Amino acid sequence: MASKYDRIADDLRRKIHARELTPGARLPAETALMEQYKVSLPTMRQALAVLRAEGLIESRHGHGTYVREPRQRVRRTNERYQWEKDRAQASEDERRKTGATEHDTGLTVDDLEFFATYDDSETADERIAEIFKVAPGTRLLRRTYQTRLRRENVPLSTVDSYLLYDVVRLNPALLDENNEPWPGGTQNQLSTIGIELDRIVDEITARPPQGDEAEQLDVPPGVSLIVLRKISIDTEDRVVELSEILMPGDRYELRYTTPLARWS
Q1: Nearest-angstrom CA–CA distance, 146 and 159
Q2: Range(s) of the chain covered by CATH 3.40.1410.10
Q3: Where in the chain is the domain with CATH 1.10.10.10?
Q4: Where are the beta strands (DSSP E) in 89-235?
Q5: Other Cβ atoms closer than 10 A to 232
Q6: CATH architecture of the domain with residue range 74-255
Q7: pLDDT digits (tens, 9 = 90+) for 169-216
Q8: pLDDT greater than 70 at residue 1
Q9: How many angstroms separate the CA atoms of 121 and 253, rounded?
Q10: Can you tell me the distance from the alpha carbon of 140 to that of 73, in angstroms, rounded to the nearest whole number?
Q11: Could you give the CA distance from residue 131 to residue 204 in angstroms, rounded to a whole number?
């Protein structure tokens, strides 16, 4: 049987989803809600804490509690990798029309702002060295990416991408952050130095935000980060790129379709 605070949270959640309480609307004061639902203050606060943890409401110090403006939803599927590979060989004009984030959100290039910084002084620690099967201390190119909606002030996610410096330096254009956003993304970049991907391994975990991650990504209290480690392996069975992607759990959906062989 649902508790009193769960039933209150369910009712307020329904009103938010039905837009009876619209984004930006101020909720009644706690005392008014207590009277409306005929519960004690601790019970009312428990109900509001549930909605706050789900990212549906937010408290503004000295002003009250408000329905939170919904963030852009992102659906990331495993089909995106084949889509990226097919697109990597398209013309530059075609590649400039859209990208992976647009694919995942249904938005257009004009809806988004893209930021990239490169660091070619990074070296592989033991963890990264083991993934790439190289010696610790091997020089890397670390690329940090953020994409945000022009109408929002926080990124959809943060991405740290690692490439082996001695591999990508074969094309000096790949070392210059000013060439970002690169039409066709990483798969097209790798194709300029003769690398074709064979497969991509996704390793997914979840954890609470650390340090300033909650503020940077606007993660509500109680919401976890989805951590996606993406390992790209080429047709010669070499790891050629490692990406670590932080995605707020309140706005990302990961959807994986696995075709199964039929019994003969």
Answers
A1: 7
A2: 74-255
A3: 4-67
A4: 112-119, 140-149, 157-164, 197-207, 225-234
A5: 22
A6: 3-Layer(aba) Sandwich (3.40)
A7: 999 999 999 999 999 999 999 999 999 999 999 999 999 999 899 999
A8: no
A9: 34
A10: 32
A11: 16
